[in-house]
Design a protein that fits this description.
It is a single chain. This protein has about 180 residues and is of the alpha/beta class. It has 6 helices and 7 strands. A 7-stranded mixed sheet has the order 1-7-6-2-5-3-4, sandwiched between helices. α3 (about 70-80) links the parallel β3 (about 60-65) and β4.
């Protein structure tokens, strides 16, 4: 797993998570490249708890977020934390660019919210699947379960050539977990 070095931010993030009652369950794999998906994404708090977890564990994780978040001091902080601003209305070529970046990296964990929004959606965006499949890397499902203040780590999922079946299996994994405002349909 790509690691950041120990520093004061890690200790502070761990302290904030602990005091807020959050825990992480499961084990992060020791693989150099993967696509991490986090769901259900139902609140801006997911980003807060996710970034605190990333920092507390020292995980070197790049993540994609909507361009509007990357303005002013928040934008600087998100870029420093590994954020990649995405212009969602004009994302042509993004999957190909991220796939190429993944293929060429010795070590890269890329985080994506498969819903693409905090609203409840009937269908996930499939860019994460295409990136993982085309780059030949596994998908790591991470879940938020607000009733128990848990961030859980699932088993590595290796994409097959059947996108629809893979997405159905991943959504099934997420069925029991409840976000802050909703679960997965």
């Amino acid at each position: 797993m790509p690691q950041q070095r120990q520093n004061g931010w890690r200790r502070l993030a761990f302290s904030v998570l602990t005091r807020a009652g959050w825990k992480v369950v499961g084990t992060f794999p020791d693989v150099p490249r993967l696509v991490l998906i986090a769901a259900p994404h139902s609140s801006w708090w997911d980003g807060v708890w996710g970034l605190l977890t990333k920092s507390a564990l020292g995980i070197d994780l790049a993540f994609m977020g909507k361009r509007e978040l990357f303005i002013g001091p928040l934008g600087w902080a998100l870029r420093w934390a590994g954020g990649i601003p995405i212009e969602r209305d004009h994302a042509h070529g993004l999957v190909g660019q991220m796939t190429e970046r993944m293929r060429n990296a010795n070590s890269l964990w890329l985080g994506i919210a498969p819903e693409g929004t905090r609203k409840r959606v009937a269908r996930w965006k499939s860019g994460f699947w295409h990136i993982a499949h085309d780059a030949g890397v596994p998908i790591l499902p991470i879940y938020f379960h607000y009733p128990e203040k848990t961030i859980g780590v699932g088993a590595l999922f290796y994409p097959s050539d059947d996108r629809a079946a893979d997405l159905a299996k991943l959504r099934e994994f997420y069925a029991p977990w409840q976000g802050r405002n909703h679960g997965i349909e």
